[in-house]
Amino acid sequence: xxxxYAVILLNLGSPDSTAVxxxxxxxQEFLLDERVINKSPLVRxxxxxxFILPTRPQQSAxxxxxxxxxxxxxxxxxxxxxxxxxxxxxxxxxxxGMRYGNPSTEDAVKNLQAAGITRLLIFxxxxxxxxxxxxxxVVRLMEAxxxxxxxxxxxxxxxxxxxxxxxDALVERSLPYLKNDFDKxxxxxxxxxxxxxxxxxxxxxxxxxxxDCCNTCHPAHATCYRHQCMTTAHLFKAKAGIPDDKxxxxxxxxxxREPWLTPYTDKVIEDLAAKxxxxxxxxxxxxxxxxxxxxxxxxxEGKEIFMDAGGETYQQIPCLNDHPVWIKYMQxxxxxxxxxxxxxxxxxx
Length: 349
Hints:
By secondary structure, the protein is an alpha/beta fold. The chain is built from twelve helices and eight strands. α3 (56-67) crosses α11 (292-308) and α5 runs parallel beside α6 (131-148). The longest helix has 18 residues, at 131-148. The chain starts with a strand and ends in a 9-residue tail after the last helix.
């Protein structure tokens, strides 16, 4: 039988619209995921349905309205552009699957099955490992494959947070925004609860046990989100030639009352302005595609916090999105995979 190859791009997802009902449906699917709120099902259901869903959908709907485009959700639209441009560059089928919402991972798998795909490259659009992003997207895909297309053989792209080519792409994408002088460059990564970090530590004895745990070599780093974020920031800093005193790392988007990774981005932005920082640039390397967390939380809310605290110039550096350097990066990953399987002609470019 002739092999048929495909790649699937996995992303988080988005509501179908800014209507409160659609936002509520999306948040319910998202927040009831055991890898997002890692409590017992009883506790998780109680917290989500009694404390979050009664008010959060209305708030989130207003936030989505601020960044929604004529084409739809920025995250979904950008992922579709990535799919289209990668499809034009490689000689294999390209699908996209959202962990929550549409186009769904399950529908993507059904498309792969209908197309007769036999080998699949799984490409999470998350550079860093976290149970609430990279892991849950991959697990959902594997569940759908087991149900609808168990014969498809898979290869998984590992977290690429320190891949030199990824760092090069991130720096090249960002350099035009760093040409003008600035006081600070803030790396704002999506936050996760500290409990997620401890749960992902296979030794259960390293992460967050010492102040310097991320800089102490340990097998836990393979699944340590904080270590991987810090590594990306430091590699970027070195590659771009950013002085040590002009960069910081923080974590955004915390939810609930339990401790999340610190320092918190909103507090850092306010403190920097209060301490006299006038020109601040913020980059969000945990996100490949601009989305609610970058376009509204960082670009809009962050700017408001900074200006109100005395800042003067503020800019969010766009994510990689469908920039040619990112498409080239994905293309190389696909071509390398195809080469390993002797697929013949690799690229249409």
